[in-house]
Specification:
This protein is an alpha+beta fold and 389 residues long. It has helices at 5-17, 31-43, 51-64, 75-85, 103-110, 129-139, 171-180, 232-241, 266-277, 279-297, 328-340, 367-373; strands at residues 68-72, 92-97, 114-118, 140-143, 146-149, 155-162, 184-188, 196-197, 200-201, 208-212, 225-229, 246-247, 254-255, 303-305, 312-313, 320-323, 346-347, 376-378. The protein folds into two domains: 5-28 and 278-386, Aspartate Aminotransferase, domain 1 (Alpha-Beta Complex), CATH 3.90.1150; 31-277, Aspartate Aminotransferase, domain 2 (3-Layer(aba) Sandwich). Strand 2 (92-97), helix 5 and strand 3 form a beta-alpha-beta unit. Helix 1 (5-17) crosses helix 11 (328-340), helix 3 packs parallel to helix 9 and helix 4 (75-85) packs across helix 5 (103-110). The longest helix is centred in the C-terminal third of the chain and has 19 residues, at 279-297. The chain starts with a helix and ends in an 11-residue tail after the last strand.
Length: 389
């Protein structure tokens, strides 16, 4: 790789962002957000019992076309609740990519179950459907309508498919795979609000889907998440679980089972309602920024600029470059140069199977996953950089 690559990369990114210092993903906040939060404060309904929460859920349902939306305090709580809805037991395994944020694996551990790490497809960063099917044919056994790991004797109960950086794999084929092997499908669409596969919103293909509205997401409530489902029974139980499983009553406090304090507060929902009003503008800005990067990187032979497949319409949450050289040392030098130059950039996460708390978890061969760990770099992707002309 030529010595001036880092210099040219820094120059290219600064030409796009037009900033001396650019951040990975700032939220798009303005006076309208402040006014909406003030309005909520004046009502005094600032906690989880708030009309703003109900309005926020209805607004998310309208955008995603999900029949039911249950707002949670963050994306991790949404994943944990979804796994409880799947009735994940300590004797169960849950399939998921190792190239993944830690919350999915942690949530499985909250259920005292076992994460089971699977390979991804380098073209879309989603589950490699063909490799996973061949792997399951080899290591699993279908018995009494359940999938069992022949080696560990544990039940393989579910697959968590992650829509990294706002992109997706082929959800129709993933669904077919899950049906074949009797698996529940949870879509981790934490990074994919506003992303679609074949014109259907991500998070609405599986048995359950989850979203995140953290401060670094494309739409923010400060901290927040949501569970998406078309199943009324699951929606009702999710609503109960995130409210401590409290039995409705005018004055008595009775609880039906172990529950959680996971309901989104009204203050957060108020910010979300304001954000939704300008969400189309945010999406346009993100697409414009993505196109700027595409144009400026088209002559860079040292990298690939990651783009969506023909069936995916991405929100372009984090713009991503993939270095062509398979070297952790080179990746780290590039990251050091970018960050030292005022450009906040990050690698993908340290692979989950490389963390000590997951050393004993089963995994398939992860050649592509381990190569991509050495190549992926996320670059500044705030919507403001798409609005700076």
């Amino acid at each position: 790789m030529k010595k001036n690559f880092n210099f040219r990369l820094v120059k290219a990114i600064k030409l796009v962002t037009k900033k001396k210092k650019s951040y990975l993903h700032e939220p798009h906040l303005d006076e309208s957000d402040i006014q909406e939060v003030k309005k909520c404060i004046k009502t005094s309904f600032v906690s989880s019992i708030s009309p703003q929460v109900n309005l926020f859920e209805k607004s998310i349902a309208k955008i995603t076309k999900s029949k039911y939306v249950i707002a949670t305090v963050n994306g991790t709580s949404a994943i944990h609740t979804a796994l409880k809805l799947f009735d994940i037991k300590p004797t169960d395994e849950v399939l998921m990519p190792s190239l993944n944020f830690v919350s999915s694996a942690n949530a499985v551990k909250y259920c005292s179950a076992t994460p089971h790490f699977v390979e991804i497809n380098k073209k879309n960063l989603s589950v490699d459907i063909i490799k996973l099917e061949n792997y399951l044919k080899k290591i699993s056994l279908i018995k009494k309508n359940h999938c069992f790991n022949k080696k560990t004797k544990r039940r393989i109960k579910a697959l968590v498919v992650v829509h990294l950086f706002g992109y997706s794999g082929n959800l129709n084929k993933i669904n077919a795979l899950c049906k074949k092997f009797k698996l529940k499908l949870l879509e981790d669409a934490a990074e994919a609000f506003g992303s679609y596969f074949k014109k259907k919103h991500l998070g609405t293909f599986g048995d359950l889907g989850v979203l995140s509205f953290n401060g670094n997401k494309i739409l923010t409530t400060g901290g927040g998440g949501a569970i998406l489902t078309s199943n009324l029974g699951l929606a009702r139980r999710a609503s109960s679980l995130i409210n401590q499983s409290k039995i409705p009553h005018k004055w008595e406090t009775k609880f039906s089972e172990i529950g959680y304090n996971y309901r989104l507060p009204g203050l957060n929902a108020a910010l979300g309602l304001s954000q939704i009003k300008k969400f189309k503008k945010i999406l346009r800005a993100k697409k414009k920024l993505n196109q700027k990067y595409r144009n400026i990187f088209k002559n860079f032979k040292e990298l690939e600029f990651f783009t969506e497949s023909k069936d995916c319409s991405s929100n372009h949450w984090l713009n991503t470059i993939i270095l062509k050289t398979n070297s952790m040392s080179l990746r780290n030098k590039v990251l050091k140069k970018l960050n030292n130059s005022g450009i906040q950039a990050r690698p993908c996460w340290k692979l989950l199977h490389k963390h000590k708390q997951f050393f004993d978890c089963p995994k398939m061969e992860l050649k592509i996953t381990e190569k991509l760990e050495k190549k992926i770099i996320n670059i500044p992707s705030s919507p403001m950089y798409g609005l700076n002309d």
